[in-house]
Structures are given as structure tokens and as C-alpha cells.
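Protocol step 4 of 5: obtain the predicted structure for the target chain.
Materials: sequence only (see below). No template structures provided, no constraints applied. The aim of this step is simply to have a reference model before the mutagenesis design in step 5. Sequence pasted as it appears in the construct record:
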Amino acid sequence: MHLNKIFILFCILVISANSCIVPYEPDINSTAINKYVVSGQITDICSRQIVTVAMASSVTVPKNIPVSDCYVRIFDTMGHVFTMNETDEGVYETDIDCNYLIPGNSFRVEILTPDGTNIESDFDQMNVCPEIDSIYFMQREIKDDLSSKDTKIIQFYLDIDGGNTQSRYFKWEVFETWEYHVEYPIEWYYDGRVHHVYPPDYSRKVCWSTKMTNEIYVHATANLVENKYIGLPLNNVDNHSNKLIHGYSMLVNQYAMSEAAYQYWDQMRSNSYGQGGLFEKQPLSIVGNLHNKTDPSQKVLGFFSASCVKSKRIFIDHIENFEIDFEGYCSPTVPRYGFKEVFPGEYPVYLMGDEDNWYMIFLNDECVDCLLIGGTNVKPDFWPY
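Step 4 output (C-alpha cells):
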């Protein structure tokens, strides 16, 4: 009898525990998916200004659904109108005179879609953007309880100093660029017969990769006594990647935003972190500043903003006491049956060798071709090394 009670209690606990764990499954119907998504940001950089128009896709099958043949115009509070031209599917661009891209001027967008839907944004004011005060990093160690290895990281930080400007709301974009090398040049290969490339082809031995980080970085100083903040965390890089071996650069773009733009991006940030785990909060219903004038009941996703921007770039070529533990992409193999293992569809097969001889050691393509790892072999203009 006592055992039966224990068994019943155990079953109740299991059922209760399982009933508390309810993964969030969004209710996606055709109405929710059939929404316009607009993205655009006017900056004080004298270059092409861009607005994109798309349709929302299912979160379970995310994809880009651009909307072409829209009539897109930008208006400012000075009375100017700028008509945009479609340069790619769903991508609209125009040039705005630099004399109008000044703090105090406000901008809004109007879009007429092919199905007759009229979309308008609120005006968003361009504010003064202070210079980026400083960017720096600190070393940290992360203990791994599942293995004997500890992971070392360098954590980047940014200091804000808005001074006497009225700008109190900020957003940052972070772009990483790093140099990486493959193990070997192209010197020997087999495509039915063995070829010797002399001199060896080093054109794909060194590459550079540039990526924008996925994180959303925003911060407000509106509730602080001083318009400054010390030690805002940005991205980090660990010692198991190839980013810090041959040189690393980070470009940070700082945007001074309106309060409305800040609220939107702060909710986006919160929403993106909310997708990370079982017990995270469910996604927020994020409201931007775009409106469907044809059917007000149909929400338009996205935000149209105006912002001044400042940029700062840093370089790192060596970090003391930071040991890299990167396994690499090159995995040479010794074929048991030699070239009999190679099919014509696998040509060319790269071989290990020196200036005189080749060896029956196959090199996978990533041993000799850095382009296959996702970068370019064209050295960036800003690269100092």
C-alpha cells in the first residue's frame, strides 16, 4: 500500500511538471502573415538612402518576400519630396541633398503598393549624434562544467558621452572583419592525372571576412543625471574561433535616435532575446510608426527613422596571454585505395606535396581555398596589416 502511494505521488509530480512546461507556439494564420514589412533609415551620410518593402513570412519558414513596383516617396518638414527608384526587388533608393540631412529636420515615407495599399509613416526627427567616446575590450574566462577546457573570450565595451547634446537615445551596429588563412597553396591536384602548379597558387590562401553581428544594441541616458554611460557590453570573441589569429577589426556605427525609434528597437531587442529558451518570455507585439491608411485594421511591421551617425573602427593584431584553440577546417586524409576512390564528379582532388613531389594525401578543398570558408581574397582598403 505504501509503495502504491509513492507510485501515485510520483505520477502526479511528473504530470504536474510536464503541464508547467508549455513551449510557445505562435498562432500564425494567413492574416498574420499577409502584412507589409517596411524598413528604412535616413542618415546624414551623403550616400544613397534606402527603403525596403516586403511581405511578412511565417516564423516557421522564414524567407524574404519582396514587394516590387511600389511608388515610394520621402517627405521632409522643409517641404521637399524625394521619389525613390526600385534598384532591386523590393529595394528602393534615392539621393537626398546633404544640405537637408541635418539635425532638426524630420522625414517620413509614403508607399503605394501595386494592390493599392497606401502606407505612411510618422515623421521622425534627425538628432545630433555625438562622437563615440571609446571602444575597448577585457579578457574573461568561462568555465565549462562538461569538459576540462575553459573558454577564453575578449568582451568588447563602449563608453557613451553625449555631452551637452539633446540626444539621449542610441543604437549601435557592429561589423567584424578578420583575416584568415588556409593551410596550403594550390600546388598539386588530380583530375584523372596529376598536375603540378608552379609556382604554387597563393591567390586563395589569404582571405578576409566581414559580418554584421546579430545582436541589437540600444541604450538610453534619458533617466541619468549625466548624458554618459561607461561599459556598455557589445559583442565578444572566443579563443575557439579563427577571428583573432591574423588580425581583427571592429567597426561600430552609433545612431542618435528619437525616443519612438528607441522604444521600437528596445522592444525588438527584448523580443529577440525572448526567443532563446523554453522559459523565456513570449514574443511582444511590437508597434512601429508605420500605418496602413487603406485598411487601418491591418498592421504594418517595421520602423522608418531618421538619424545622424558616427563611426569608430579599432584593430587588434595581438592579445597577450590569449591562447588560440582553433581546430581549423583542413583535414588531410590518406586514401586506402588511392585514386580509385575518386569519382570524376569530385575533380579536382588537391594533393599534399612540395616543389618536387606529390604525396598520396588528399586535401579537402578548405585546405587550399579560403573562399569556401565564406570570405573574399580582396584585401579591404582599410586593412592595415
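Step 4 remarks: The longest strand covers residues 301-316. Helices lie at 2-20, 30-33, 259-273.
Proceed to step 5.
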